[in-house]
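Render this sequence as a predicted structure.
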Amino acid sequence: MRNNGKSTNCACRPAKADIADECQVRIPYMKTVDCSAYLCVYAYILKNLATKNEKRDKMTVTLRFRNHNSYDENSKIANKWKMAIKLLLKARYEDGTIVAPADNQYLGNRLLVIVNPKSGVGKAREIFQRKIVPILNMADIDYDLHITCMQNDARNLMRTSNIYKWGRGIVVLGGDGLMFEIINGLMERSDWQRAFEYLTLSVIPGGSGNGMAKSISFETK
């Protein structure tokens, strides 16, 4: 990221006002331009383990890179850190990483989000924009969004699409009916066994009753 111009202080340790930043260029009217590059690392730390109040708290660590007098050069270093962190995360979960299926079908690294805008009280799209998009952006996950427009739309999508390009999984934002469509669409495929072996399904409650989401939550408590 780049400084938004509101502040030139380091995000982790504010600098004193009387100390000139070596990575700032003086411009007319006594203003400064921050050429630092910033990298935010987000984590959801599990707290209160082994108790009924177990929850995750968001923690943000902001790193500032200012070794060079150019934003582009600083950005290159920040990007190296970003790639190093992502490789460490990948190595950490390497044992559980799914591999490409047979017949040369590529297992992609994208996520599919299916939203039924009419589920429940009709706030599924709002839930996606307000709660899900920020998390996907923080996790730096590439995703495809599919908004259903008619009955059995999701069912047909699962039955006819190359689902293996969504190797990160399929997120269902809606009620029990939407998940019902998706599972039935997968079951109608000739490769349904392979599909369930390689794909991960998850549900975000957006319907009226959300019986499946509640049952999963209860079972994993």
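Summary. The chain has six helices and eight strands. The domain at 111-219 is CATH 3.40.50.10330 (Rossmann fold).
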